[in-house]
Amino acid sequence: MKQFYFYLVILAAFSFSCNGVEFSPNQKFRDGTPQDVNNTEIAKLKQKSAGARIRIAISSDTQRMYKEAQLFVDQVNARNDIDFVILNGDISDFGQLLEFEGIYNIYSKLKVPFISIVGNHDLVANGPYIFRRMFGEFNFTFTYGTIKFVCFDSNSREYNFNGAVPDIEWLKANFKLDPGTSNIIAFSHVPPNDADFDPKLRPVYEQLANSTPGFLASFHAHQHQPDKTYKPYNNSVPFIITNAVLKRAYTILDISNGQIETTPINF
Amino acid sequence: MDKLRPLLLIFSFFLTPSLSFGQNKILKALTPDYINLQYGGSIGYVSAGVGYHFLGEKTSLSFNYGFVPSSKGGPLNILTPKFDYKPFNIHFGKNVVWKPINPGLFISYTLGRNFDKKFDPDQYPEGYYWWSTALKIHLGFSTEVKILGSQKSAIKAVSLYAETNTNDLYLISWFENRTTTPISRIFFMGYGVRLHLK
């Protein structure tokens, strides 16, 4: 009988500690998987009114480092000066639903809206379907105060450098000031000067950004290195590559009077 | 699907109760010890397979095909060879056997264009992504109740089981987050029926 109770305890332990039924680690969604998160968060952002200075916390590359992601969220929640948070790609590592959900569950506890951009790791296996259903489009824009934010997919290697990513035509159409906006800021995961960005499209993108009226800066991630800024030409707009949550770092971006200032933060 | 068709044919052949061909030795050897039907368990919304005992009744090897429909997060087609070890038997009367805890090891292979054994070397530098999107090694624990029937009927016994499993990538992620993530977060359930033919 002793043996019997021993088994009963083991059984109880594993049957009550489980998370329900899984059909495959590669499934695109399950019951309760959040949907359309970016639109929901942008709608929340619209409820807020921008001050003279906009302050954004730029994060990226969480890649299933849940502990670091939680520390980041705690940091942002502890300060009351952030307008919203950017999650600039590589939300997941293996492109699995469990990883997207894991990071969503942590970021959704932010007191401010967060907007997510697709990274190369998010496009692996069924990642593209998971991202699109859970967060939304790969190329999208939103406005806060007088700033237009243009977010796009620059993960060219995932498309085997087919010339369609980044989508230059879409960028041309969206690198345009809308009524009521005075500046443009771009976000994408892979930086133009990276080997994973389509080398044929790099000069096209850089010139386009540089010739766009009101363009302030282009922000990227992917490299997991301390913040770097490069300018392909004299007097070019800055192309800024920020660090990674998995390196316990994020970047504060301040925008006021058509000027930007960035401050890297380590935690 | 083209890749899948011959495999499905083989499976359907196995699934045909072949007892009537008892005289044919080859067929007899091929007749599975059991047929397996499962819901969930990370190898399909539903999966079906055939199993064989070897080295006695405590060990078995089964071959399963699973499908996840679009409405459940698919479409996904998954092939899974599975090894089970059932070390303990607890009898309740003559006809009921409980196998309280049974470790199992299985390899799921997800078919389809989004999944590969290896990332394309023409597209990625060596070591860019180190894992496989198609192949996953799973570790499972099941508990099973076996109800014995008549030795004369085609189905000699029926088992009901519940299984919890995780896989290599989940374990790696858990390990890297082990101070903050409980291990229970990476285990998922499946439920099944086993029809014993021998």
TrEMBL record, chain A:
PROSITE patterns: PROKAR_LIPOPROTEIN. Residues 54-226 form the Calcineurin-like phosphoesterase domain. Gene3D superfamilies: 3.60.21.10. Transmembrane segments: none annotated. InterPro entries: Calcineurin-like_PHP, Metallo-depent_PP-like, STPP_CPPED1. Keywords: Signal. Pfam families: Metallophos. This is Metallophosphoesterase. The lineage of its organism: Bacteria, Pseudomonadati, Bacteroidota, Sphingobacteriia, Sphingobacteriales.
From TrEMBL, chain B:
It comes from Pedobacter chitinilyticus. This is Outer membrane protein beta-barrel domain-containing protein. It comes from the Bacteria.
